[in-house]
Specification:
0% strand; mainly alpha
């Protein structure tokens, strides 16, 4: 019995090599990585999380967003945090925490809202100072004292309080 093989549409994907060539002679492309000297050093954790007065100095170059932290929506918080990051008041790590409220995620209503019973309202104003105070209390309860989560929440809360005290609404 003679076996004939029909060519399938995807057979070319399963060919191991071209006929007449050897695996040993085949040269794979090599990607070179940048030298270590080109890669910038990471910012020390202490410097990135310092919530002292010096680190809050860029707040003087305030944002173009005129919002009151006691009546701020999650979408406004994201815009405000972006302005703070661009202005240098927030480090990247701080911005990652403050600048991406969960309610702005497109799948929030299918995931978190199912568990909490509260649908996303990203444009509904609320007291962000109180929300960050609650978040800080949670971080202190469930993380080590002085840990990065606690310090980041403290920094965002201090920036919100500072904006509130300046009356930039």
């Amino acid at each position: 019995m003679v076996e004939t093989r029909t060519l399938m549409k995807l057979d070319y994907l399963f060919k191991r090599h071209d006929p007449g060539t050897s695996w040993r002679n085949r040269k794979e492309p090599q990607l070179s990585s940048p030298s270590r000297a080109v890669v910038p050093a990471a910012e020390p954790e202490e410097m990135a999380l310092d919530a002292s007065e010096e680190s809050l100095a860029p707040l003087k170059v305030m944002t173009s967003i005129q919002v009151e932290p006691r009546r701020m929506s999650p979408r406004q918080l994201a815009e405000w945090a972006h302005e703070m990051y661009i202005g240098g008041a927030l480090s990247w790590q701080d911005y990652r925490i403050a600048g991406f409220p969960a309610e702005l995620h497109p799948d929030y209503n299918d995931t978190v809202a199912v568990l909490t019973g509260r649908r996303a309202q990203p444009d509904w104003p609320r007291d962000m100072v109180q929300e960050w105070e609650d978040r800080l209390a949670f971080a202190r309860r469930h993380n080590e004292p002085g840990g990065s989560e606690v310090r980041r929440a403290e920094k965002v809360l201090s920036l919100l309080r500072r904006q509130e005290s300046r009356g930039l609404s």
